[in-house]
Amino acid sequence: MSSPMYRIGYALSPKDGQRFIQNSLINHAKQRGIDLIEIDPTKPLAQQGPFDCIIHKIYGSDWNNQVQQLSVDHPNVVVIDPPEAIDHLHSRASMLDVVTSLKIPQGNQTLGVPNQRVLEESENIMDSIEEKGFKFPFIAKQVSVDGSAKSHEMFLVFNEIGLKKLKLKKPFVMQEFVNHGGVIFKVYAVGDHVKCVKRKSLPDISEGTLNNMAPDEGLLLFKQISNLIAKSDSSDQVEGYISGVEKLVEEAEMPPSEFVTALANGLREAMGLRLFNFDLIRDSRDGNRYFVIDINYFPGFAKMPDYESVFVDFFCDVVGEKRRKVELEAKENQEVRGGEIEESKTLV
């Protein structure tokens, strides 16, 4: 007799679903006794299933209410993750607060977040910068993280000229730029499984660069590193720039694995989330100084090396944990019933 298949429901946007639910993941999951079942977010969740577990990344209060009701009606369905926990990452104004409150063993490493603040609608940008001692350059980005393309747009503001050009609607977040050697570390957390990868990032910005900015420059909209290639007709210069960035990434030393794992575990416990990643940078001036600059819920996990194996291991962890919980509850109920029977016999 074959073992039962466990049903993992997933509710994702069409774009996220196409990227994440690949044949390689489906096949690997089936080999381990797991069926991945698509959930239609346009239909009532209560009418779909049954599920052993659901994973989701859908925005909106209606969906959140349905997930919360599912947890009430079917407490044995594992929901990854609770909507109220996910909501904390939908505001850049507060998402990094959790980092500063972490108590983790760090060895020689120190951890922090860049100086940042929210510019409210009633505030004047220049006045706010002078009052708070904010320094150029800084990154400006929307407060709200709602899955839209706009919420992922970021601006690098070099000086007052760039500040005057900035058309980002208030309120928005201003985060001081920290030189970090052109390398960012993306740390993926999938339950207890942690993976850290190196990626190219914004290059260091020297005082000379800031002082030599052309009068018409000062603001840069960026979504990826390619936006930072110098404006030049010289293909040799562009190729040299790309080659230099790739070399920085290749030669960059990874942060200590114990530090990264402790940080990921600390964030998981503090946030109550099991599927997230965070962006970690290392201060160019101090090789032991690290900053968390962003935290994302259910990011592009398909970009993570061996994501299929990591997720199937995670799914097996979840259903195994659920099975043990159900067996324990059944045993406790049996013991209670046995105790009641013995008690009734003594009363006869």
From TrEMBL:
Q: Which enzyme class?
A: transferase
Q: Name one GO biological process term.
A: inositol trisphosphate metabolic process
Q: Which cofactor does it need?
A: Mg(2+)
Q: Gene3D superfamilies recorded for this chain?
A: ATP-grasp fold, B domain (3.30.470.20)
Cofactor note as given: Binds 2 magnesium ions per subunit.
Residue stretches making up the Inositol 1,3,4-trisphosphate 5/6-kinase ATP-grasp domain: 108-316
Mind listing the UniProt keywords for this protein, alphabetically? ATP-binding, Kinase, Magnesium, Metal-binding, Nucleotide-binding, Transferase
Q: What Gene Ontology terms describe what this protein does at the molecular function level? A: ATP binding; inositol-1,3,4-trisphosphate 5-kinase activity; inositol-1,3,4-trisphosphate 6-kinase activity; inositol-3,4,5,6-tetrakisphosphate 1-kinase activity; magnesium ion binding
Query: In which residues is Mg(2+) 2 bound?
Result: D294, N296
Give GO cellular component annotations, separated by semicolons: cytoplasm
Segments spanning the bilayer are none
Enzyme Commission number(s): 2.7.1.134
Q: Which Pfam families match?
A: Ins134_P3_kin (PF05770), Ins134_P3_kin_N (PF17927)
Q: Which reaction does it catalyse?
A: 1D-myo-inositol 3,4,5,6-tetrakisphosphate + ATP = 1D-myo-inositol 1,3,4,5,6-pentakisphosphate + ADP + H(+)
Question: Could you say which residues bind 1D-myo-inositol 1,3,4,6-tetrakisphosphate here?
Answer: K57
Boundaries of every Inositol-tetrakisphosphate 1-kinase N-terminal domain copy: 7-86
What job does this protein perform? Kinase that can phosphorylate various inositol polyphosphate such as Ins(3,4,5,6)P4 or Ins(1,3,4)P3.
Assembly and partners?
Monomer.
Give the protein name, as stated in the record: Inositol-tetrakisphosphate 1-kinase
Native species: Lithocarpus litseifolius
